[in-house]
Amino acid sequence: MSGHSKWANIQHKKGKTDAARGKVFTKIGREIAIAVRDGGSDPASNSKLRDVIAKAKANNMPNDNIDRSIKKAAGELGNVEYFEITYEGYAPGGVAVIVECISDNRNRTAGDVRHCFTKNDGTMGVTGSVGFMFDKKGVLVLERTKDMDEDEVMMAALEAGAEDVLAEDEAFEITTDPTAFSAVREALEAGGMEFVSAELSMIPQNYVTPDAENAVKIQKMLDMLDENDDVQNVWHNAELPDA
User: Does residue 165 sit in helix, strand or coil?
Assistant: First the structure.
């Protein structure tokens, strides 16, 4: 679940229960299936697959699970057809929401996502209704340690082609153009950096601070969406209180 990337959110993800972690692995497995379908099962020649593998490792997915997902995807492409579907709409208080899904049943997924919106006083919109409020970026989060030199991290990231580096108390957030994401990530990994989060993200151009009542409804909607196996990512522009 993602609004704008914040270290507190990453910390929360790292502390997930085994059950929740298993759900994350299932969702990443679907991303692997899409990547294999689009570019083959060899990461050396499939940059999209390399990116998903990096995301899997950032989420502590074991190498055996990753390899098994790749082999499964390569062997079952004729049996299971996955679709990438994006839904847009508004949560209470005028909060813009983008829901990215991977599904083998469009009708089921559309109904489930619509239910999450309507049950929490949200409204589904048409494609493009809120997407213009977000910018697609690559986001890499590097945990900050005492021996790190801030200037060196920033210089390395910028030299690798990053657009910006945000230094926070506990992490560095590195932003890239989406077309440069793979190259920047691989260059920094080659230099010894290990990321706690590495993915393409939808970054809001502006944020909305809902009142307390709407904040509760929005959080319930986000939790419902997060529980759905078809939902891969949810991006929103709400400034919500820390859980």
Answer: strand
